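Why this split exists: single-chain examples teach little about how molecules sit against one another. For that reason, every record in the complexes split bundles all components of an assembly together and asks for one structure covering all of them. Below is a record exactly as it appears in the raw files.
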Amino acid sequence: MTPAPAPRPNAPPQAGKRGVRAGGDVLLYLDGITVSFDGFRALNELSLVVEDGELRTIIGPNGAGKTTMMDVVTGKTRPDAGEVFFRGDHDLTKLDEAEIANLGIGRKFQRPTVFENLTVAENLELALADSRGTWRTLFARLSPERRERIAATLERIGLAEKRGEPAGALSHGQKQWLEIGMLLIHDRQLLLLDEPVAGMTDRETEETAELILGLARDRTIVVVEHDMAFVRSLGAKVTVLHEGSVLAEGSIEHVQNHPRVIEVYLGR
Amino acid sequence: MRVNERNPWSPRFWLAFAAVGLVLVILVPVLNRLVAPDSAFAVPDYIVPLLGKYLCFAMLALSLDLIWGYAGILSLGHGAFFALGGYSMGMYLMRQIGTRGVYGNPVLPDFMVFLNWQELPWFWWGFDSFAFAIVMVMLVPGLLALVFGWLAFRSRVTGVYLSIITQAMTYALMLAFFRNDMGFGGNNGLTDFKEILGFDLQDPDTRLGLYIASAIGLGMAFLLCRFITVSKLGRVLLALRDAESRVRFLGYSATNAKLFVFTVSAVLAGVAGALYVPQVGIINPSEFSPANSIEIAIWVAVGGRGTLSGAILGAGTVNLAKSWLTGAAPEIWLFFLGGLFVLTTLVFPRGIVGIIGQLRALSPRRARPTAPPLVADERVLTERQA
């Protein structure tokens, strides 16, 4: 039940070097990705293409491979087979997490992971788009412009009053927002959001949807989510994963009326 | 400019630093030299090298706190770096003996003559120069840490596993240095030193000089550690300690950051060892023993991890207790040490500095501790102690 591999409009390594960023270009390209854990196939020849500037939601039942897919893109998991390219010619299967992050791919985890023993502002400081070199970090000084940026981000995620508090003291929803703030402040080209509204109240969920739609105006975002109301409110193209492969892809209406999707979701 | 409003280099900090520095560098020598020996305030000559030894231990504890308290790297083999620095200094001191050795050989140390060696092994070349020895004091532990750390951190060895392989490292070095063939004096190590830079090591003046050098060394090491821990890199390290994979996804190289502090820490430990050896007059393979390295971790835990000043306090307190108890009731010392560790772990996880902080919290003016501890690590130590 694997869909035919998508055509490769930007075949590496020749293409992509021109740095074209117009809509319609392929930003993220996964082909034939297979990942097995002890014989269990978490991803089964998964192929997925995300275009530059796109907002994409990925849904699927538990164990469909959503988080594993993100692990592969961010370098946490090496696929057994298949290829992953970013901006045409960056082979992500050859890079480690830090290198991939520095290419411009940010990730928000399922469970909010902020640095609990650092203050809210310090969390944002580490996320700033400054040099990641060890030596540079040792001598780094915060310019007034950076300070301003931290203040603006704190304002935007509604944590300005908490700036000096340890992030561990925040509520669950606030941690989620801080983590989104850490993605915001860096200005990455591609954001991968793993269940960004898990554990949020309805109001927080609504605000997060607005925030993501705002962010999506000038970057590419892939959202993995269970919450169907939230997915609907984003109104974006939906990819349904099932048993490690793409089951269906299209608008939310298209997907919801897809017989196989109904079968998988309701037939169990 | 910094994210926090608190200035780590505030006048208050410098005042406290200068006060402690004055006591160690000025007051102790004055009490040793200018106060009549029968006065209650006099510091007798035999106490000076003992204090110097504590300062070296404090520097060693500081080096461990830098990696354990701030980066979550619990090295249980830090004694190895200390010993390597000590051996480098010891080799210089051996070469200074010259013809005054038992066998009177101008080039070969006594143990080599005894083993019928005909010429100086290549790795002893250059150690007749003090400058060369000082470079080696830092280079040897630094290089070992760089290679060991690179292999370990690149393969993402963390937590208990890292602690165990550091123990294995120091144990392997101990066995190697015990062998006569290694060329470091085997079981007996290096001893019978006569002079350093031309100064007689038995002379109280030289001993006072070495004590002052240790105090200045400790002060500089403290400032260096503080500079690292209050920098943005210090915050990256804290973040690594608490959520390593998250730091990688932010684009920081966890391997490089850890390798950097691990190497700095090993160099500091080496310098501490080099200051220690001329004051105690001997270096032998027992310095590599795993139990020694565990004791360093206990000093840090008792003082309070992730506080720097706690490491110094802990090393001082535990070693004072050791000096007193091993004299007064030697049989209970190990029970005391074990009990102290259990008590610290269970009741005062933040150590002496934490207790002081709690007492201060009772008063209206309170300060946030610099680096909250990682409680999970305690298990490691308890297991190793058992």
